[in-house]
Amino acid sequence: MTTDDYPALLARLAKVRQVDATGAADARAGLDRDRRAVLALRNALEDEAGEIRDHAHLLSAPVPDLRAPADPTTPPGTLDGELRDGREALARATTARQEAVAAGRQPSFLPRAPHLVRNAVIYLAALAAVLAVQLGLHATAKADATLWIACLPPVAGVLAGYIAVGMVSRPRVPTLDKHGKVIDFKIYKSPRLGVAFAVLEIIAFLILTGGLG
Questions:
Q1: The model's pTM
Q2: Which residues of 1-16 are buried (b: 16+ CB within 10 A; e: fewer)?
């Protein structure tokens, strides 16, 4: 080796150092990207876990165990694969929570039915119970009490149905605006429908008991 070889060796050494420095910088940059990706996924999972716990409390449902079970037989995967699986699990959890919240914002009784159908079922159920009570009272009461038995119980039945409509039509989870303020849920109680059914029930009672004869 002659002195003329030194410049070439120095240049080669400098090139090797440059390549090593570039590789180290790329490795550090990749590590920083992975760390940020893991941190972002972790924060998203923690936020979603908090949302699930809060909405489980609103829905009066048990809080699920959000800890992922460890399977010792599963071979370790790559970081990219773990991040992909974590994002997919987060998307499934978010979708399930949103569906549960959407269901909780619907009426508890016949949630998918129109309000007129729901109210009709409630009023008819209340007045059917009233008719049974009327027939029992008619069997034991005096003849001159028929008109009172025909008219008074249906009024109570309509009132009970009106109250029941308000109870079963209210959603369990309130709807909030972008400022976190509760948006009032409008409940259609259809009192005229209840009154119409009460009139029909009175006519049915009088027909069954011969009051129109």
A1: 0.59
A2: eeeeeeeeeeeeeeee
